[in-house]
Specification:
Elements (H helix, E strand, L loop, with lengths): L22 H6 L14 H15 L21 E9 L5 E2 L2 E2 H14 L4 E12 L4 H17 L3 E10 L7 E11 L15 E4 L5 H9 L17 H10 L5 E4 L4 H13 L2 E5 L7 H10 L12 E5 L4 H8 L9 E7 L6 E4 L5 E3 L13
Parallel strand pairs: 4-5, 9-12
Antiparallel strand pairs: 1-6, 2-3, 4-6, 7-10, 7-11, 8-10, 9-11, 12-13
Helix pairs in contact: 2-4, 3-4, 6-9
C-alpha cells in the first residue's frame, strides 16, 4: 500500500467514524481473522487493504510511492529530518493507548525533539495469521486519529502476513519525515555547564501501565500510559527559549538512559535532585514492590529539555500551558564535574551514580 500526500491534513474524525465501513468494504471483507491469503498479493490482500487501511488513512492514490510537497520545503535553509522505528509492545492494547497510537506518537516525538515539524509518516504492518480483524481495525483507527490530530499524514505503507506464532499479533514499523527551520540546531554538543534540566511531566507511567496490563504479577492500577505526541510541547519550549540547547524523548531505558546518552555527547556531568523528580505514588509503589528504579522505566509522552538557567522559569510556565506539559518540573543541572556521568543527590543528602541501563527491566515495552 502506498499513497500520495496532500499538502494539507484532512479534518480529524471522531474515533468511532473509522469503524464505519462503506458498501464496498462491507462486501469485500467477510473474514473475521487474518489468514495467510491476506498476504498473498491477490484479491484477499487487496480486500484487506480496501476495507481496513484505505478508509482510515484516506490515500490520494494507490501508487507505489508517496509524492510529497509542503511549503516548508521551500524555505531557504530548511532541512529535512528523517527517522525510523519499530513497535512490538505487549499487550497490543493497554490503558491509555495501543500499538497504533504508540507508533504514531513515537515517530512524531523522534522528529519533534530535533526541532522538526512532523509532516509525513509511513507504516508497515507485520500481522500474524489468526489475528482478529476487529483488533486490526482498532489499531489502524487509533493511528489515523493520532496522526490527524497532530496534523500529520500517513502517506505510504505495507502489509505482510506471517504464520501463526511468528509475530505475536501485530508488529508496526514506521518512518517519519519533518522539516527543521533554517536557524534551528539542537543537539548534545550545544549543552553547557549551568544549563537547567527539565522534564514535561511525571515519569514512568508507560512502563508501570505495561507491567500491570500484562497480568503476570497480579498488579492493579488506575494509571494510564503517558503515550502522547509532543510536538506542541517542543513548540512551546522553543517559543519560550529560542536558544534551547537539546531535547530527547525518554522511551526505552527511561530518563536515566536518555541523560547518560546526552551527558556522553556533551562531555559534561549532570546532577539530578531526587526530591524534584515528578513521580506518581502508584509508580513509586509498583517500583518498590518489584525492586525497580523508576528512572529506567519507559515513557512514551515524556521528554527532557536542556535550557539556559535564565530561561528555566519561562520554559516551565510555557510547558504548563499545554496538556502534555502540565506536570513539568526542573529536575537538575549540568555541571563541569564528572564529564559523561549522571549523579543524583538523594533524599538523604548523599549522591549516587545514575548509570546507563544494563540489561532490560521489562521487555516488549514499545
Amino acid at each position: 500500500m502506498a499513497v500520495c500526500a496532500a499538502t494539507m491534513p484532512r479534518p480529524p474524525k471522531a474515533f468511532h467514524e473509522y469503524f464505519l465501513q462503506d458498501e464496498k468494504a462491507d462486501i469485500v471483507l467477510r473474514d473475521t481473522h487474518i489468514t495467510m491469503a491476506h498476504g498473498s498479493g491477490g484479491r484477499a490482500m487487496r480486500d484487506l487493504i480496501d476495507a481496513v487501511f484505505v478508509p482510515a488513512f484516506q490515500p490520494d492514490s494507490m501508487e507505489d510511492q508517496a509524492r510529497l510537497m509542503d511549503s516548508a520545503l521551500q524555505e531557504a535553509g530548511a532541512r529535512l529530518a528523517f527517522t525510523t522505528d519499530g513497535f512490538v509492545v505487549s499487550p497490543l492494547e493497554f490503558p491509555g493507548g495501543d500499538i497504533g497510537k504508540l507508533a504514531v506518537c513515537g515517530t512524531i516525538n523522534d522528529l519533534a525533539v530535533g526541532g522538526a515539524r512532523p509532516l509525513w509518516l509511513s507504516a508497515g504492518f507485520i500481522i500474524e495469521e489468526g489475528t482478529e480483524i476487529a483488533l486490526l481495525r482498532r489499531i489502524v483507527a487509533s493511528m489515523a486519529q493520532e496522526a490527524q490530530a497532530a496534523g500529520v499524514r500517513i502517506v505510504t505503507g505495507d502489509t505482510k502476513i506471517v504464520e501463526r506464532g511468528a509475530a505475536d499479533g501485530v508488529f508496526v514499523t514506521t518512518a517519519g519525515i519533518g522539516v527543521i527551520p533554517a536557524a534551528l540546531d539542537l543537539g548534545a554538543h550545544h549543552i553547557r555547564a549551568g544549563d537547567a534540566i527539565i522534564v514535561n511531566g511525571p515519569l514512568g507511567d508507560h512502563g508501570a501501565v505495561i507491567m500491570a496490563a500484562r497480568g503476570e504479577m497480579a498488579l492493579e492500577t488506575e494509571l494510564l500510559s503517558d503515550c502522547a505526541a509532543l510536538h506542541l510541547v517542543m513548540a512551546s519550549a522553543l517559543q519560550a527559549a529560542p536558544d534551547l540547547r537539546a531535547a530527547r524523548d525518554c522511551t526505552r531505558g527511561g530518563l536515566a538512559t536518555a541523560l547518560n546518552e546526552l551527558a556522553d555527547g556533551a562531555r559534561l556531568g549532570m546532577v539530578l535532585d531526587e526530591s524534584a523528580l515528578p513521580l506518581r505514588d502508584e509508580v513509586r509503589g509498583l517500583c518498590e514492590i518489584l525492586g525497580l528504579d523508576p528512572l529506567y522505566l519507559a515513557n512514551e509522552g515524556r521528554l527532557v529539555l536542556f535550557v539556559p538557567a535564565a530561561r528555566a522559569d519561562g520554559v516551565l510556565h510555557a510547558l504548563r500551558g499545554v496538556p502534555q506539559g502540565a506536570g513539568a518540573a526542573r529536575i537538575g543541572t549540568v555541571v563541569d564535574d564528572h564529564p559523561g556521568q549522571v549523579r543524583m543527590k538523594t533524599a538523604f543528602g548523599g549522591f549516587r551514580i545514575v548509570d546507563m541501563l544494563a540489561g532490560d527491566q521489562l521487555p516488549r515495552i514499545c
